[in-house]
Specification:
Number of strands: 25
Keywords: Repeat
CATH topology of the largest domain: Neuraminidase
Protein name: F-box domain-containing protein
Distance between the termini: 39 Å
Structural class: alpha+beta
Number of helices: 9
Number of domains: 2
CATH architecture of the largest domain: 6 Propeller
CATH class of the largest domain: Mainly Beta
Strand order of the largest sheet: 2-5-6-7-8
Oligomer: single chain
């Protein structure tokens, strides 16, 4: 019998098994199945919070990756995260009710609030809560599988970022889940062009630190992390073009990687199969463009999305001709989102549809529908935006 069929078993068939055998059997279950089967009995529910069981699961089998796509800002209602498992080809849901309970104890959020998942890596999610008028904020790092969270310090520089700017936020979690860093790169402030724009939160220092700023004429649009290097796509306001810059975290220094990239209305970087790509939206088509950092010819087109998939993806998107002209240029409130997932690149629209390009097979898969997005999004709202990522799931609690 497959481990994933354990959910059909009754509690009395398992309650007399030695704990060591039970834990060993359960450790082979994928995390979504563990979430489902924790309702079998109290002992199973408590098991997922134990560090020893988390370590056992990490050793038992390779981790799967899961893709989630959601609105970049959500108000009031409990929403959580709907993740797609490419192995089972099914969606499953992780609730954020545990964060609601924590926020309900804070007086400053009694009147109303909105929240955004601003970064995610491995099994940890970074979630920003704000009052509707953006007067008060709370920043959390959490694991929705174990329903554990920690509030992070929130400093003054974040106020303007939340209220006015659309920063690029990237999170890097250690493989052993023992620590993490959250990188934040702001836009150029119109009235304070020399103000500090780049910060990092280091979980081991438990503090926000200042980093070397990018050049003042560059506004961040999209970013990815590869090993210890951040690759950030910038809009160059002087040359009116997109360029790719690399930030070396070890040296705290910026360098230009690609001076000029092809024109794109919604420029987005993705990493897939260990390779760096630029997803280009132009002339009623999406193109997958590979970036060759160490070669003379720095870009090459890998594939164009077939028109039938493009038409299905953009159907009912009201501002396809303008692509929400300002917001999409800088990467937030974008009506489309590109995510690297293993050896695939997933392109999603806010109407709830996704199309996948498989690098190994050089093929495009038919679209799938995210019902959560379909139910929530107003297709006539030009402020609608998407956030998403490819993550693995873990039973480790956020580092303290």
């Amino acid at each position: 019998m497959c481990c994933e069929d354990l959910g059909a078993m009754k509690e009395e068939l398992w309650q007399d098994l030695p704990c060591e055998i039970l834990e060993r059997v359960l450790s082979f279950l994928p995390v979504p199945s563990l979430c489902q089967f924790r309702v079998v009995c109290k002992k199973w529910n408590e098991l997922v919070r134990q560090p020893s069981f988390a370590a056992l699961c990490a050793q038992a089998h390779p981790q799967r990756s899961y893709v989630f796509v959601m609105p970049d800002t959500v108000t009031d209602a409990v929403m959580g995260w709907e993740l797609f498992d490419s192995v089972s080809r099914k969606y499953f849901y992780l609730s954020d009710d545990f964060l609601f309970k924590q926020v309900e104890m804070m007086d400053r959020f009694k009147i109303g609030f909105q929240r955004s998942t601003i970064a995610a890596d491995k099994g940890l999610f970074c979630v920003l809560w704000s009052t509707m008028g953006l007067e008060e904020h709370a920043l959390f790092i959490c694991n929705p599988v174990t329903k554990q969270s920690k509030e992070l310090p929130f400093y003054g520089f974040f106020d303007l970022v939340v209220g006015i700017h659309n920063p690029v936020v990237l999170m890097s979690v250690q493989d052993d889940m023992a620590g993490y860093k959250i990188f934040l790169i702001e836009e150029v402030h119109p009235t304070e062009p020399t103000r500090q724009r780049m910060h990092v939160y280091d979980s081991k220092a438990e503090n926000w630190l200042k980093l070397c700023d990018p050049p003042q004429n560059l506004n961040p649009s999209s970013g990815v992390l590869i090993n210890n290097t951040l690759y950030i796509l910038f809009w160059d306001s002087c040359n009116l073009t997109h360029s790719l810059w690399a930030y070396d975290a070890a040296k705290d220094a910026w360098s230009i990687a690609v001076e000029k990239l092809p024109k794109s209305k919604i420029p987005q970087l993705v990493v897939s199969g260990g390779r760096l790509f630029f997803v280009r939206a132009w002339a009623n088509s999406f193109s997958i463009v590979e970036i060759h950092l160490l070669e003379k010819k720095q870009t090459s087109v890998v594939s164009h999305m077939p028109s039938k998939h493009f038409d299905d993806l953009v159907q009912l998107v009201p501002y396809i001709d303008t692509w929400s002209p300002y917001h999409d240029m800088i990467g937030r409130n974008a009506s489309f989102l590109s995510i690297g997932d293993g050896d695939s690149i997933v392109i999603s629209s806010f109407k709830g549809r996704s199309v996948t390009y498989n690098l190994l097979e050089n093929s495009w898969d038919q679209s799938r529908v995210n019902k959560q997005l379909v139910q929530i999004f107003d297709p006539l709202d030009e402020d609608t935006g998407l956030y998403g990522n490819s993550v693995t799931l873990s039973l480790s609690m956020p580092p303290s």
